[in-house]
Specification:
With 140 residues, the chain is mainly beta. The strands form 2 sheets. Strands 6-5-4-7-8 form a 5-stranded antiparallel sheet. Strands 2-1-3 form a 3-stranded antiparallel sheet, covered by helices on one side. It has 2 domains: 49 residues, no CATH class; 73 residues, Beta Barrel (OB fold (Dihydrolipoamide Acetyltransferase, E2P)), CATH 2.40.50. Strand 7 and strand 8 form a beta hairpin. It starts with 11 loop residues before the first helix and ends in a 5-residue tail after the last strand. The protein binds zinc ion.
Length: 140
């Protein structure tokens, strides 16, 4: 789905602001190259595949699989309140791009590479919305 976002003269900060804007609306949106259809993530002005500067923003399904993960049993960032252990995942999205994120509401002993996940959007006290994932459990 083309999200009809103006794409002229955008800086990296503009791209991140657009990405964050859509997260706050409960959408994963990524740039897609108009020439070769490769998704760009993180956002960029030039396609890493064909060097085109033409792109559109597209909404992704939010579905994917666990490509890889790591369980942290120590909090390396004690200023951020989080439950220990926590899980950092690399998610292979259905449309192809891979994103790093965290799993929520998950038994770390049940994790496996290849399990289906779906995106959730966590509103933070600072008004930022973070992309997280939850096991899909048959609802995909
Ligand atoms: Zn391209």
């Amino acid at each position: 789905m083309d999200l009809n976002v103006p794409t002229t003269s955008a800086s990296f900060s503009d791209h991140l602001a657009t990405y964050s804007h859509f997260l706050a609306k409960g959408l994963i949106a990524m740039q897609q190259c108009k020439q070769c259809k490769t998704f760009r993530f993180p956002p960029a002005n030039i396609c890493a595949s064909c060097s085109s500067d033409q792109y559109d923003w597209h909404a992704l399904s939010g579905r994917g699989i666990i490509w890889s993960y790591c369980v942290f049993h120590k909090d390396y960032f004690p200023n951020e309140s989080r439950k220990i252990p926590y899980v950092v995942v690399l998610i292979q999205l259905e449309e192809g791009p891979r994103v790093f994120s965290n799993m929520t509401d998950v038994d770390v002993n049940s994790l496996q590479i290849g399990l289906p996940v779906r995106a959730i959007f966590e509103d933070q006290p600072n008004a930022e919305t973070l992309l997280r994932f939850r096991l899909a459990g048959g609802d995909t």
